[in-house]
Inverse folding.
């Protein structure tokens, strides 16, 4: 939830649920620290394909579950125009 809020999403949570609303602003460059959680790093990397300026602190933490993640993510977007 903290990472989503940091990139400009609305986030509200309770003991039983979390509500996420679309990004409403671009606060400029944002460094996300996944605290060595490969799942957060990968999720925020995908989000970063739609919001400019997102960077991941310690991106190598993804190697524990998906060593080729960064290469594969680049391949998905190779040759695509930025929209």
């Amino acid at each position: 939830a903290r990472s989503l809020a940091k990139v400009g999403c609305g986030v509200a949570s309770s003991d039983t649920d979390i509500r996420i609303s679309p990004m409403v602003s671009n606060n400029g460059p944002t460094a996300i620290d996944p605290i060595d959680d490969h799942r957060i790093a990968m999720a925020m990397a995908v989000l970063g394909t739609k919001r400019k300026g997102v960077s991941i602190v310690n991106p190598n933490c993804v190697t524990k579950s998906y060593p080729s993640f960064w290469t594969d993510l680049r391949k998905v977007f190779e040759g695509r125009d930025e929209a």
In short: The first helix runs from residue 2 to 6.
